[in-house]
Specification:
The chain has 13 helices and 9 strands. It is mostly helical. The chain has 2 domains: 149 residues, no CATH class; 169 residues, Glycosyltransferase, CATH 1.50.10.10. The strands form 4 sheets. A 3-stranded antiparallel beta sheet has the order 7-8-9. A two-stranded antiparallel sheet has the order 1-2. A two-stranded antiparallel sheet has the order 3-4. It starts with a helix and ends in a 7-residue tail after the last helix.
């Protein structure tokens, strides 16, 4: 790794662990909520930063608070559920985190310990898959499915299915139903994008809806590259980064970091490094990164610095280092 990358990773890992609770939970910020997806994102980042014990504690917290049906709620505060919604993407993502923890540590015993947790999570999420392959977003607090699929969430679920299948194979377990579910999901993402983001949520304006099929690995090669650059000008602001929403002038560090990772996957290392350099201006000497900036006023917003933004920085910097040590100097 070159340039500021090692220092950046260590510094941001310190910021994340500085917010981790004794239970292992990682809130957004002090006294903030804990949502399972961002909690896992932080755990993956901690493994990348070689903070394996802290990552392990994060997964053990998930094991402790998992619901009997295999789900997690969408938000917790002080160990108690704050939002009773059950998001299919949030719930299945444990399988991705657990698999990556194994790749970083080669701790087969811990993979065996966490397998039932990840398995129950994926099995719960599968109850939201539709006959055409896409996954409805969530069950509300009354247990009613929200009748619509988000392409960002469904793409991430596909990645979690692949991670779960890799864990299963290593453990000598067969889950052909997961394989079939993944095949149907990939096909509908690639061939029927009209089945997503069509129930009034207007999610095609979100950057995650744009790049997640590439970031998750559903789209690859030429198709992935064409997909990214088709809407590049809708989201990327030169000198700043990636907007969270194409229709609003708010550039966010987390979305820019995820775009950096997607660019690394399609061989656009130089472009990825350029975006990474742009976001270094949001680095706070006191720790962490600013969430984003409103343009053209150049107004930092919001004031809070959250853990999952720092996790995104760790992941993006690690991706750049992995593909060739791109300097950020």
């Amino acid at each position: 790794m070159m340039g500021v990358i090692p220092e950046l990773i260590s510094e941001q890992a310190d910021f994340v662990t500085g917010h981790q609770l004794p239970s292992g939970a990682i809130p957004w910020y002090r006294d903030g909520i804990i949502d399972p997806w961002d909690h896992i994102e932080c755990a993956i980042a901690l493994d990348l930063a070689e903070r394996h014990e802290e990552a392990r504690k994060a997964y053990q917290w998930l094991k402790k608070v998992q619901n009997p049906d295999g789900s997690w709620y969408s938000a917790y505060v002080d160990g108690h559920a704050e939002d009773l919604l059950k998001d299919a993407n949030f719930i299945s993502y444990t399988a991705t985190g657990v698999w990556y923890h194994y790749l970083f540590t080669r701790d087969l015993d811990f993979l065996r310990e966490m397998w039932p947790v990840a398995e129950r999570g994926i099995d719960f999420s599968l109850t939201l898959q539709q006959p055409t392959g896409e996954f409805y977003w969530a069950y509300d607090g009354q247990g009613k499915p929200w009748p619509g699929a988000l392409i960002a969430g469904s793409s991430c679920i596909w990645q979690s299915l692949q991670s779960g299948l890799k864990s299963a194979e290593l453990l000598g377990i067969r889950r052909p139903d997961w394989h079939d579910a993944g095949e149907r999901l990939a096909r509908v993402i690639r061939e029927c994008p009209e089945l997503f983001d069509r129930h009034g949520e207007d999610a095609q304006h979100f950057a995650t809806s744009w790049f997640y099929p590439v970031l998750a690995g559903v789209l690859e090669g030429k198709a992935a590259k064409e997909h990214i650059f088709r809407r590049w000008d809708d989201f990327v602001v030169d000198g700043w980064g990636c907007k969270c929403v194409s229709t609003a002038p708010w550039v966010t560090v987390a979305e820019t970091c995820e775009l950096v990772m997607a660019l690394c996957l399609i061989g656009e290392a130089d472009t990825a490094a350029t975006l990474m350099r742009w976001i270094l201006q949001f680095r706070d000497p006191a720790g962490g990164f600013r969430t984003g900036i409103k343009l053209p006023e150049e107004l930092i917003w919001p004031e809070e610095k959250n853990t999952w933004t720092s996790a995104g920085v760790i992941m993006a910097a690690s991706a750049l280092a992995l593909i060739g040590g791109k300097s950020l100097d």
